[in-house]
Amino acid sequence: MELQTTIYLFVGLSFALYLGIAYWARAGSTSEFYVAGGGVHPITNGMATAADWMSAASFISMAGLISNMGYGGSVFLMGWTGGFVLLAMLLAPYLRKFGKFTVPEFIGDRFYSPTARNVAVLCLLIISLTYIIGQMTGVGVTFARFLGVSSAQGIYIGMAIVFMYAVFGGMKGITYTQVAQYIVLIAAYLVPAFFISLNLTGNFLPQLGLGSDMSGTDVSLLTKLDQVVTDLGFGQYTTTSAGSTLNMFFYTVSLMIGTAGLPHVIVRFFTVPKVADARSTAGWALIFIALLYTTAPAVGAMAKLNLHGTVNSAVGLVNSAEGGIGVNADAVKANADLYATESSLQYEQRPEWMKRWEKTGLLKWEDKNADGRIQYYNDATKNEVAKGKAQAAGWKGNELTVNADIIVLANPEIALLPNWVIALVAAGGLAAALSTAAGLLLAISSAVSHDLIKGAIKPDISEKGELMAGKIAMAVAIFVAGWLGLNPPGFAAGTVALAFGIAASTIFPALMMGIFSRTVTDKGAIAGMLAGLAVVLFYVFAHKGIFFIKGTDFVHMVGGVNGFFTITPEAFGTVGAIVNFVVAYLVSKVSTPVPKHIVELVESVRVPKGAGTATGH
To answer: Strands, E, within 107-162: which ranges?
Structure first.
């Protein structure tokens, strides 16, 4: 079957499945809309949580980041998975014991303050809206490449699909739809990895293939990759770190506590019947997530090697007779000259996948030395040997620009895998983006309808009225998310990191202090959240510009680029969390002590057993 037809078939069937499940599991009450009725099985919930969590950033971007960063990309693996360990140990069972619908509701009740609840709502909306931009952009990119439509048309289609199954299904519909989406996205991630690992190393499992020798040689895959990238002026793949050691530590911690503080993930723990199920959900989610996250390093490394092998024959990869890219053992052992004229691929002989991705603008070629061949190397390298070889070969600069976000989506095409595998990856990329977008939209909807309208504006609203308000809020949120995706503010690379930084510096400390401290007061919690939010935004805006507007940065005020102990803006959530904790405790020391009934509430929440059904009252 022709490739485009196969893609239409796979994507169409997956969408039909999602909409069918949403119709079957549509919500009829606020309990079903917010927490799926509170009766979801832990394994089912774990799978839905994994889909909710593994967004376009995980499916589309993470392997690309690892492919570009090498060892330094491990901060994402450690941070994002480590966050679920924190959730399971420190938050999930206690929040489930509390038994309400939303994170702001817990903060408002624990800190006995409508203001604290409203500040939490503000933080939640900022986190969710910044996070969702990447999801809608991912939907647009995936549709643009695989369905032959514009990025804008892709976003419109994505908005319509999410509208149909999220607005009418609520948490109940989203939960069971996300189970289906998890199955689609994990299959789409693992199947190409199995093929590619088998082709390159003879080992079926990519986790083992990453550490294996290349087929027919005694040269390990990582050794060969290190040799190729360093010869071409890139950093050594297996040692390059994400900045200083301190920055790498702070970056990892920020991602961990940011994960544990994401409202759309936390709310999933309100959907299970018992406290023990909340902890079990986190464990199952970690297992389901690990299937993708332990595969990502292999996907990143193998995709990088395949890409270099495609444009440079000296790497030693060839088109195998069985289909796909295989290994030329003699060429791998020979370490042929990567700078030889005949090694560089002639542009006119480029494979079809390059032609397809060039149309999206995410892969570009510029013939800087007018030889009609593709030179792909690091022209900004400080490696004098590599610079000398490039000059001697007549190379005038890097000619191939590859957006990191295409690594996973293009991976089966680069590896020349069958059409059905390419179509499966298209369906998987859309499933990843749509599942997280739905979870974020529900978090926004519940914050507006339950925490603002019912909690602050109209406490006597009927259940039917609240349900309608929730659906209207979600519909509005979908249009806002679509507009942001259509008109991104030019900071797509920083939005996810900013979302994690805000969650790490606001929601996570407030929840931790709310559960484990009997002395933090309402004023302390409010001051802490606002201080954490302000510190992170100040440092990020100093580097990126006020509200990311170009030309408004003031990096000199923070000591220059990464001026605070070499910490990057993306890692600054850890600093914001520290500020939050310190300010909250200092303000609590000088404010009116916590009322006795709140102390008793904290004591009861900290005994994680005996919780009833989650309620809205």
So the answer is: none
Q: What are the angstrom distances between the C-alpha of 88 and each of 114, 279, 509?
A: 28, 5, 16
Q: Residue 374 has what pLDDT?
A: 96
Please tell me the distance from the alpha carbon of residue 286 to that of residue 88, in angstroms, as a whole number.
9
**Is the distance from CB of 304 to CB of 314 less than 8 angstroms?**
no
Local structure of residue 507 (DSSP, 8 states) = I
In whole angstroms, give the CA distance from residue 550 to residue 491. Answer: 10
Report the first-to-last Cα separation within the chain, whole angstroms. Answer: 56
How many beta carbons lie within 10 A of that of residue 330, not counting itself? Answer: 11
Q: What is the pLDDT of residue 583?
A: 98
Question: Could you tell me how many residues make up the chain?
Answer: 617
Among 442, 57, 2, which residue's Cα sits nearest to residue 264? 442
127-181 pLDDT, tens per residue?
Answer: 888 888 777 777 777 777 777 777 788 888 888 887 776 776 677 777 888 888 8
The CA-atom distances, in angstroms, between 480 and each of 159, 369, 474 are 10, 45, 10
Q: Over the stretch 54-107, which tens digit does the pLDDT of each residue have?
A: 777 677 777 778 888 888 888 888 888 888 888 878 888 888 888 776 788 899
Quote the tokens at residue 203: 């080992």
For 68, 344, 352, the CA distances from 400, given in Å and listed in that order, are: 14, 12, 16
Find where tokens 């013939």 sit: 367
Tokens found for residue 84:
């679920």
Element (H, E) at 455: none
Rounded Cα distance, 454 and 452, in Å: 6
Buried b (16+ CB within 10 A) or exposed e, 393-414: bebbebbbebbbbbbbbbbbbb
- 462 CB neighbour count, 10 Å cutoff: 11
Q: How big is the CA angle at 565 (ends 559 and 567), to the nearest 5 degrees?
A: 95
d(C-alpha 214, C-alpha 194), whole Å: 15
- Extract the residue ranges of the chain whose pLDDT is less than 70: 27-38, 57, 101, 165, 168-169, 321-323, 488-495, 497, 607-617
Query: Please, are residues 500 and 138 in contact by the beta-carbon 8 Å criterion?
Result: no
| Alpha carbon distance 257, 72 (integer Å) | 19
